[in-house]
């Protein structure tokens, strides 16, 4: 319980979550072997090839009417 | 209740991105999408041979309602079959557009919000015994539905940080952020009496499509649309367990929440799961505390009663791992199964390789493209193909569900539809009724959703099968 409250306070008082997750990511990538890193790089490169060129238009141009 | 009927209704977002010739508004793109349906069925609101329903409201979203299913695995297969069916329509529309000189691409997104803040839904239906009083739903089910987003949300980036809500900051202002849920920011109501407070999240007044003296149809509207089968299984499977406990009068805490709309938002924007919000009795709780209570109760309940289907142990295990991931801030134990964690892992990988943060246009694009239903281009589907997603059911089960009805009343409906179309006989069906238009006085009513056969319909089908059609029946869609 105390620990959870501390977490909540950290969350409110700083930009901790994003920094933490970035730290975790770099920590993880430091530990894994180079094959896995290049595997991830390959997947991201493949995804890059599938995305529409204009990222901003892809997101901003998606406008619907509300549902239900 | 030994067996339960489940169904999911999904509204899809639609977008046409032009190349060469100009744009098409969503309404026009949706009309193009439904052209084969209209050509074949003369309607944009049809029941299919698999028992499900395809629907297009004027100017609104393409929608797929699964047939009524009686097992979670059938529900998963039929939910995914909706994506397959719509993808087939996209391909046909794409061909028609090319023939007309349009060179762009149609996208269908299984998500819940557009860039202007319009929200569209994923609605779950659960058959519920009528004896469960509404007050117990308010005390124990609604708090579960409000807090379950930490396990089963689809994840969402917020380039300008969490929106403000009633003057209360939901997180650091203007700092790009990631939330558990897509839908939580779009459920508005939170008024004074329990009944009206409950109404926006659940609705039990709808027609039950069954014997109304025994059953209600619980209609849940606050869930995110999920891409991951495991997430859908946890969402529906855990909700089913809570409903079973309520039906069996198993003791669950009174967690009636004072302000549902505020709690939904506070929870969605707090990735630690520990932010506190007020209950009706004046105390405060966090989402993780409440979900730990539901999970522990469900484990004890299952230990006492035994698992009621093959996937109960997996559901309880994934539920626990999702809560542990949030408690420890390490989602590596769920990042092939839970949508928000799968998505966050991908976005964080891009950020660690140079994307500026959750406000980077590329990150925004990936957040949306994750929900693209296209099997080759949609990012969830790419990750699945690369073996980075755990699936529960096979491709062939999904293929079959696009055509064959599940073993419920849907089988009666689906067989009737198939026979009538093969005979070239016009017909009218809804969830409960079936009739041939040539014999309007003979309308068959099937009130039992578990029934897989009906003598009256069987004899109608026999008649239809004897009548050889002289009319060529086009493909179903």
UniProtKB/TrEMBL annotation, chain A:
State the NCBIfam families in the record: pupylate_cterm
Which species is the source of this protein?
Answer: Rothia endophytica
Transmembrane ranges, per UniProt, are none
Region of interest: Disordered: 1-26
The similarity comment for this entry is:
Belongs to the prokaryotic ubiquitin-like protein family.
Q: Where is the composition biased (Low complexity)?
A: 1-11
Q: Which Pfam families match?
A: Pup (PF05639)
Out of the domains of life, which is the source? Answer: Bacteria
Which InterPro entries does the record cross-reference, listed alphabetically? Ubiquitin-like_Pup
Q: Where is the composition biased (Polar residues)?
A: 12-26
- What protein name is recorded for this chain? Prokaryotic ubiquitin-like protein Pup
| Pathway(s) | Protein degradation; proteasomal Pup-dependent pathway
């Amino acid at each position: 319980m105390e620990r959870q409250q501390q977490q909540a306070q950290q969350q409110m008082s700083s930009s901790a979550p994003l920094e933490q997750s970035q730290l975790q990511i770099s920590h993880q990538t430091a530990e894994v072997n180079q094959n896995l890193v290049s595997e991830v790089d390959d997947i991201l490169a493949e995804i890059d090839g599938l995305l529409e060129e204009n990222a901003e238009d892809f997101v901003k141009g998606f406008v619907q009417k509300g549902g239900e | 209740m030994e067996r339960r009927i489940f169904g999911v209704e999904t509204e899809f977002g639609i977008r046409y991105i032009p190349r060469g010739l100009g744009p098409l508004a969503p309404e026009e793109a949706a009309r193009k999408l439904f052209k084969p349906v209209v050509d074949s069925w003369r309607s944009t609101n049809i029941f299919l041979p698999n028992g499900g329903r395809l629907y297009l409201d004027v100017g609104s979203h393409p929608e797929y309602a699964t047939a009524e299913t009686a097992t979670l695995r059938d529900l998963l297969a039929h939910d995914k079959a909706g994506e397959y069916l719509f993808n087939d329509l996209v391909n046909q529309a794409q061909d028609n557009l090319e023939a007309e000189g349009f060179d762009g691409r149609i996208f269908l997104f299984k998500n819940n919000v557009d860039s202007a803040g319009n929200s569209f839904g994923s609605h779950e239906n659960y058959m519920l015994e009528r004896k469960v009083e509404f007050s117990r739903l308010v005390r124990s089910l609604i708090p579960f539905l409000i807090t379950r987003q930490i396990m089963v949300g689809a994840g969402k980036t917020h380039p300008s940080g969490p929106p403000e809500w009633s003057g209360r900051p939901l997180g650091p202002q203007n700092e790009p952020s990631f939330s558990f849920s897509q839908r939580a920011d779009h459920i508005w109501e939170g008024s004074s009496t329990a009944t009206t407070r409950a109404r926006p999240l659940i609705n039990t007044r709808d027609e039950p499509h069954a014997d109304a003296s025994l059953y209600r149809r619980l209609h849940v509207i606050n869930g995110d649309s999920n891409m991951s089968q495991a997430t859908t299984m946890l969402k529906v499977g855990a909700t089913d367990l809570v409903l079973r406990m309520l039906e069996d009068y198993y003791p669950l805490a009174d967690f009636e929440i004072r302000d549902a709309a505020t709690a939904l938002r506070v929870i969605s924007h707090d990735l630690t799961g520990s932010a506190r919000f007020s209950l009706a009795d004046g105390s405060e709780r966090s989402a993780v505390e409440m979900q730990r209570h539901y999970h522990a109760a469900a484990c004890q309940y299952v230990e006492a009663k035994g698992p009621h289907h093959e996937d109960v142990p997996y559901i309880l295990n994934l539920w626990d791992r999702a809560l542990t991931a949030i408690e420890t801030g390490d989602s590596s134990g769920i990042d092939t199964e839970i949508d928000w964690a799968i998505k966050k892992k991908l976005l964080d990988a891009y950020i660690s390789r140079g994307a500026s943060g959750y406000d980077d246009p590329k990150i925004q694009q990936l957040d949306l493209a994750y929900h693209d239903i296209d099997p080759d281009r949609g990012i969830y589907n790419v990750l699945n193909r690369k073996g980075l997603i755990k699936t529960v059911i096979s491709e062939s089960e999904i293929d079959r569900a696009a055509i064959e009805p599940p073993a419920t009343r849907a089988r009666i409906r689906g067989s009737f539809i198939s026979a009538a179309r093969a005979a070239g006989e016009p017909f009218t069906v809804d969830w409960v009724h079936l009739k041939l238009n040539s014999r309007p006085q003979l309308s068959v009513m099937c009130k039992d959703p578990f029934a897989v056969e009906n003598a009256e319909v069987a004899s109608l089908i026999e008649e239809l099968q004897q009548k050889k059609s002289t009319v060529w029946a086009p493909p179903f869609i």
